[in-house]
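Justification of resources, computational component.

The compute hours requested in this renewal are based largely on the per-chain cost of generating structure records like the one below. Each record pairs the submitted sequence with a full structure-token output. That output is archived, and it is also reused by downstream analysis tasks.
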Amino acid sequence: MKNKFPQKNYKNVSNYFEDYSNSLKSTMDVISRNDLEKISKIIEKTIRSNSNIFICGNGGSSSVSNHFLCDFQKGLLIDRKLKLKTYSLTSNTDLITAISNDISYEKIFSLQLDSLARKNDLLVLFSVSGSSKNIIEACKIAKRNKLKIISFVGFKNSKLKKYSNICLELNNYNFGISEDIFQALMHSISQYLRQKKLTNKKVLKKYF
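The structure output for this chain reads:
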């Protein structure tokens, strides 16, 4: 059953927030913990193999992509044993607008990826619909260059599923709720990997 919210008009923000929170919680409760474990292991393996991690998304998911880079890059810098290489394909507005204007908006991620990626790198995607053409184009390039692909998607049975090694689908059709959960998943994985290597309680308190 699709988790759709809202399905009625609300007269006050308190009731809206209550139902929003319920939809958020019910969606998080059914997230596959098995997929979450697999995703975490793939990301950690990619970091340890000194391979690159590329991230992208559109709109709010673009913000999550940049936030992903920030939290992983800053957080894991405190562990000198982990040499992290993360790149957000959404961060260079000059390049994105040039590709969009001069070539095609569908190519804004794939052209960057084709230039930078190498075998065994990782592509992490955030997409509520899972059907954006520029995201699909990035997947095609990733497949051609033998990258692993992890996708976080709001809608169920998205186009991204057939391209991804792991596609974590929320089955929620509210863009705000899906993006909130994207953030929570990203934070959970980055903080988990950080604390996994830290035994100093003072450091744990400082960075969490």
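The chain has eight helices and five strands. The chain has a mean pLDDT of 89.
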